[in-house]
């Protein structure tokens, strides 16, 4: 959703935070004061509606060049228009003698916030559109719940938008007014932008351009169901992927996706080229397959699927306070509390547990860090609890959160040298795929000033990678070979030894 960006001389884009207390004049001569209380109110509404602001530069640089040759063929709509920054700039390309007629037949805008509608109408008048005409074509409407009748348009609708994005987990905790959108046919979806796209699908729109979170392409559980429901009907002609912050109030990384409806539904793979925009711009080709939930960065999933051990380790996550209470005894252990973090560190407590739990903690000294901390020494991976925190374990005293450090419990228990081998193997493979996919198989957490984008590793992904470690099939000599290959960072050599182990087991079973 656009809005909240005030325009001075049609080129100066500044946020309210930068101009609190200043008098602003937009290109139409509209003057207003922005006070502190008004800014706080705007911030609350922005969070409530999931609205993030699009600058006109994004439209000019990445969207307009793709549509400039067929402006008169479509009705240009934005169902979440804000100030109209993704549609109204089209009028600059229309001769003034034809501008009013073009607007009347080719532009329709909608938004749920009256303030945004008023601004959009005002901006339209700045392009020479009569107020009454602007008011007729720019309408107040909750388009997530009540889709407009696009069949009444003279030309086929082409939807260009930056929809609201608000993850359902946030909505449950902070913004229950939005829960109504996730019922009925929308049950199971995870974000407001997904509902916006599904509404376009249900109304048979042929073409759309969406500015949406990159978890649309790279997200795991947050997007799997949605992609499988949506992409059999649409192809992606191209995309622009931003690995940098482009919004004032959110670190969410976004992409611009150019969608076109398929002639008939198909589960065929979707292949498209995308520009990746960071400190430099590079072009990359992506292949999205139905088998992998149309998820980009699928090399990691292919590896964990292909090399899953025929006799994998059994993996459990989390030590809960209930586990500790049920196993009281005389053995002293120190446990950090995953739910008690302040002043940059976790607090720990001393507990007394029985022999069974004491040995379990002793034999499972590893934890998974699922979230990049922002420094190179805090990357996603597996670490030793004692070395990192100086305690015996990590206990969850309240809710389980995926972003906490999480203790790993392995069955059957394996000796310390094998645990070290597992840790080094896991981290090497993880970093290898981060390198070759630019971390695209991980979920983007949020923008940071680090020279890499902070990422999140799902527990299901961690479990799948752990299950490729074939320690129960390996001889002592093979373990030594694997250690050397890991030290050498010889990925192809590691793949070869994994393949040979599985082939050898299959041969043995066949002979039996």
Keyword list:
single chain, 512 residues, alpha/beta, Rossmann fold, 2 domains, nine-stranded mixed β-sheet, four-stranded antiparallel β-sheet, 17 helices, elongated, disordered N terminus, disordered C terminus
Question: Could you walk me through the main structural features you see in this protein, from its secondary elements to its overall organization?
Answer:
- The protein is built from 17 helices and 23 strands.
- It has 512 residues and is an alpha/beta fold.
- It has 2 domains: 292 residues, Vaccinia Virus protein VP39 (Rossmann fold, 3-Layer(aba) Sandwich); 198 residues, no CATH class.
- The radius of gyration is 27 Å and the shape is elongated.
User: How are the strands ordered across the major sheet?
Assistant: 7-6-5-8-9-11-10-12-13
In CATH terms, the superfamily of the largest domain is Vaccinia Virus protein VP39
**What does the largest sheet look like?**
9 strands, mixed
Low-pLDDT residue intervals, each spanning 5 or more residues: 1-53, 508-512
Number of strands: 23
The portion of residues forming beta strands comes to 15-25%
Gyration radius, rounded: 27 Å
